[in-house]
User: Fold this.
Amino acid sequence: MKKIISMAITAIFGIVTTSCAKADPGTVPDKDSVKAVISGVNKMYGEAFIKGDSSLFLDCYTPDGNIMAANAPNLGKRSGQLLFYKTAYKSGVRNILFTTVELYGLTEEYVTEQGVYELFGADKQSLGKGKYLVVWKKTADGWRMHRDMFNADVPGR
Assistant:
């Protein structure tokens, strides 16, 4: 009887060990390389305003991404993203510079970026500064903004 119990415990231990071994921590991307990719997408975001190109802007987001600006409704999917871009562009935004402060919770599919931004008008004057949190999602096209939440440091800017 002791031999049967011992064999059962050994078998269970083997199953548990094999199951746990399947979680490969090596699949999590390198934080510095993800940060570099995010920096590139953030530059493309600013370029979209410099060039007046909404397609560049939309390429920064997942198709089902949401923009959650302060004092505004949730703008989801491509239609909401495009509405946000057109409204910001019409208001005079001609560039946005992002500075990543930190990345949190990096997995093979998601990462959260904390940062600060500054908006600029046509003659490169500052229109305001603020902070943001973006949940990035790894897609077939690379890392894209999936949930974008931000607010200005000074109301109305």
